[in-house]
Each structure stands twice: as C-alpha cells, then as structure tokens.
C-alpha cells in the first residue's frame, strides 16, 4: 500500500513538473564550444528540436548519428536542431564536438551542472537521450518526442507544416 502511495506521488510530481504539449517552452541559455551564449528564444520563428544527450552514453551517440543522417537526407527547411549536452565533464564534450561534423542548421551546445542545471529542471530531464520539439511560435509540440526514426520525422514534418 505504501509503495502505491509513493508511486502515485511520483506520477503526480512528474505530471505537474514536466512541460506538456501546447505549453510555452521555457527559455534557457546554453553555450557553444567557443563559449558563446545561445538562448532558445534566439531561434523563435522556426521549428526547434532539442536533442538532450551525453557523450558518455553509447545510446545517445547512436541516436545522434541517426538523427544527423536523417537531417542530411531530409534537409528540412526552418528546422534548427540544438544538440544540448548535459555532461559534467566539459572537456570530454569539447573533445567530442571538435571531431563531430554537424548537419546544416544544427548547433552543439552544453549546459553546466548536467542533470542539476536549470535547463534540466525546467524540462524535467531525468535521463538521456531526450527529444523536445518546439514550434515556430515557441510552444512545445512534444515534450518527450520519440527517438530518431519515422515517428519523429513525421512529428517534425507536421510541425513544419509539410
């Protein structure tokens, strides 16, 4: 009985803290490899896919590769992909960024404090990889979008009006 109450409290917490579709996307600031600040609001006017990942997780790297391949093939117009890294080891992230070639319209960004960052709190990031789709007006289309594949491609195309 006690475990049911704990589960109910957990589900209640998640339901009311995770951003939901049709909610305005919380603005956040992340930094590129050169230390320049980028805000989500800088990209308003176009559809944004936020790909939250870690260079320490093979699943993240595999999905990042699949998403990059899709972007190269589909070349969606008016889509920006923000690859937001949440690693605590900034040097590992910087080494990865130096080797990685991004498709056009994509940015490598990092947040400090990893899962303890304001960004992770605003978007209720508990694990990675995670995908968040934001429309051109700045509203969340999908707070927990599917992994790269047909379902994600369809969501993106719908958000782009294609």
Write up this protein.
With 162 residues, this protein is of the alpha/beta class. Helix content is 36%, strand content 22%. The protein has helices at residues 2-17, 58-74, 90-99, 118-122, 150-159, and strands at residues 29-31, 37-39, 47-53, 79-85, 106-110, 130-134, 140-145. The strands form 2 sheets. Strands 5-4-3-6-7 form a 5-stranded mixed beta sheet, with helices on one face. A two-stranded antiparallel ribbon has the order 1-2. The longest helix has 17 residues, at 58-74. 31% of the residues are buried.
The whole-angstrom Rg is 16 Å
What shape does the CA trace take?
globular
SSE string: HEEEHEHEHEEH
Helical amount among residues, as a percent range?
Answer: 25-40%
Report, as a whole number of angstroms, the end-to-end distance. 49 Å
Q: Sheet with the most strands? A: 5 strands, mixed
Order of strands in the sheet with most strands: 5-4-3-6-7
**Are there runs of 5+ residues with pLDDT below 50, and where?**
6-17
Mean pLDDT: 87
For the secondary structure, the number of strands is 7
Content-based structural category = alpha/beta
> What's the number of helices?
5
Roughly what fraction of the amino acids lie in strands?
15-25%
Notable characteristics:
36% helix, single chain, alpha/beta, two-stranded antiparallel ribbon, five-stranded mixed β-sheet, 162 residues, 5 helices
């Amino acid at each position: 009985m006690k475990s049911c109450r704990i589960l109910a409290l957990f589900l209640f917490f998640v339901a009311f803290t995770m951003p939901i579709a049709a909610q305005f996307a919380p603005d956040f600031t992340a930094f590129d490899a050169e230390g320049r600040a980028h805000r989500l609001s800088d990209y308003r006017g176009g559809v944004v896919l936020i790909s939250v990942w870690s260079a320490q997780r093979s699943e993240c790297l595999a999905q990042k590769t699949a998403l990059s391949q899709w972007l190269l093939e589909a070349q969606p117009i008016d889509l920006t992909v923000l690859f937001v890294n949440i690693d605590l080891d900034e040097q590992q992230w910087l080494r990865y960024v130096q080797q990685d070639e991004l498709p056009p319209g994509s940015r490598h960004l990092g947040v400090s404090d990893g899962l303890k960052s304001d960004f992770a709190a605003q978007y209720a990031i508990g694990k990675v990889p995670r995908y968040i789709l934001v429309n051109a007006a700045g509203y969340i289309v999908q707070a927990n979008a599917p992994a790269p594949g047909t379902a994600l491609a369809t969501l993106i195309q719908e958000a782009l009006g294609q």
